Amino acid sequence: MIFNSFEFLFLFLPGVLLTYYLARRYISHWTALSLLAAASFFFYAWWDVSRAPWHELDGWTFESLIRSLWFIRHVLLLLGSVIINHIVARLMRRWGNQPLLAVGIIFNLSLLGFFKYADFLAGNINALTGLDLPELGLGLPLAISFFSFQQISYLVDVARRKTEPGRFFAHALFVSFFPHIVAGPLIQHHQIASQFNDTTRKDDIWDNLGVGLSLFAIGLAKKVLIAESIEPYASSLFAMAERGDTPGLVAAWLGATAYALQIFFDFSGYSDMALGLARCLGFRLPVNFNGPYKSASVVEFWRRWHITLSHFLRDHLYIPLGGNRHGETRRSINLMATMLLGGLWHGAAWTFVIWGGLHGLGLTVNHYWAKWGPKGWFDGHRRIIAIGLTFAFTTIAWVFFRAESWTGAGRILAGMFGMSGLGLEGVSGELVIWVAFGLGLVWSLPDTPELFADVLDEQTLKDAQIKPKPGPRWRFTHWAAIGAAVLLFLSVLNAWKTSEFIYYTF
């Protein structure tokens, strides 16, 4: 189930909101959380259930039962992950941390590696050795990259005594909570556990719905009205490159920028919707996205793009490797290793590894520039130049992220560096307008978390380092309500043609 689908908008979401608030008011807080956990597992299962060939089952036979379990294998995998990690966390509390923590981390990484990287590894071994190792073709379980990292974070929090294992269904809800399970944010257990355990919390329903639905409306509009409108132009460029054509300079840059804008509004839209859906239910998730294309350096970019993943990689990989504690050379090696693995986390392909490596190189150069380069580079008018250079670097790196093959990426990069002439083939007035419109929105308006800074709590804004400052702000007004309603109406009208979010494939 995706946020922009009709079944989610008109059935699942209204039903969950009504059930949750009624259960909290008339039954109990824990009953409401249990129902919310069940709804989240249903939300996750729908991805497979809606695609399964149920018509092939032959009545109520044992064989049909086994086949039906195969149709919902991914939700069973998620449930098994929750059960095993909860047992490990409980045993850690009873018997000690280190050996069991290692067991838990190995289990989660093995689960991720088996489903996501087994075929990738087999293919590379076959290419290098000439062997014919079989590829399993199991298919990638939805959100396995996210919930595996979430489980590791949970175990580390328990080991460091930042949090308690808690009740089983609260742990299940922490992992499966439908606003964030598919594409983040990657929340730490202690960030949400206190909210789950707060039985005295009062439901300010109209405040929650007012802020939450407004956030959701903006995010839905970003996805449906902007990202989906730009997508055909970006796909056209990459499809042309895969067919063997090398685009000209203008076409290559416009197409690559179109993809940079598509993924921006797609992921920004998801992040807004996740924040809004959680707020509708009275929960506060951390901001995960805050105007990354306004960054004046690659370091700043990763403080604004997928903020919670950046923090996870920093806390669980970069710092354990040694961080910046052993000199600049070691820091550069640690940065490169972290970003290479971060790229591989996004997808089992060498193009993702190259994308991560480019960002590792960019981070390393940034650190050396900050120390040895001219002072004041990121201030005043120079900051505008730095923002432009950072955006150009990021756009070039996105080519590897999006391309289906090395050769396709190479042709686009050849075009971007002028090796195929000026070339206007594939350039249309609509493409130019959409790119100009998208860049105008990105660089002239505050991103959603900044716009809502006055009505979001300090914990939500903390990781994004957003502080109230002068400028446009969202307020509880009739005009704000009308604006949100108009965005929802226009988005719903166009929701029939939309696809899943880009990060759903990770």
The shape, in one word, is: globular
Question: Which regions are unreliable across 5 or more consecutive residues at pLDDT < 50?
Answer: none
- Approximately how much beta-strand content do the residues carry? under 5%
Give the beta-strand count. 0
**SSE string, helix = H, strand = E?**
HHHHHHHHHHHHHHHHHHHH
Counting H and I runs of at least 4 residues, what is the number of helices? 20
Biggest beta-sheet profile: none
SS class:
mainly alpha
**Roughly how many Å is the radius of gyration?**
23 Å
In total, the number of domains comes to: 2
- State the end-to-end distance: 16 Å
How much is the average pLDDT? 89
Portion of residues within helices: 55-70%
Topology:
Elements: H1 6-26, H2 29-49, H3 62-71, H4 73-95, H5 98-129, H6 144-159, H7 168-176, H8 189-197, H9 205-242, H10 249-280, H11 298-304, H12 307-321, H13 328-346, H14 350-372, H15 380-402, H16 406-416, H17 429-444, H18 448-451, H19 458-462, H20 478-494
Written account of the structure:
There is one protein chain. This protein is an all-alpha fold and 506 residues long. Helix content is 69%, strand content 0%. The chain has two domains: 6-203, no CATH class; 206-293 and 427-505, no CATH class. It is built from 20 helices and no strands.
List keywords for this structure.
506 residues, 69% helix, 20 helices, single chain, globular
Quick recap:
GO terms for molecular function: acyltransferase activity. With 506 residues, this protein is mostly helical.
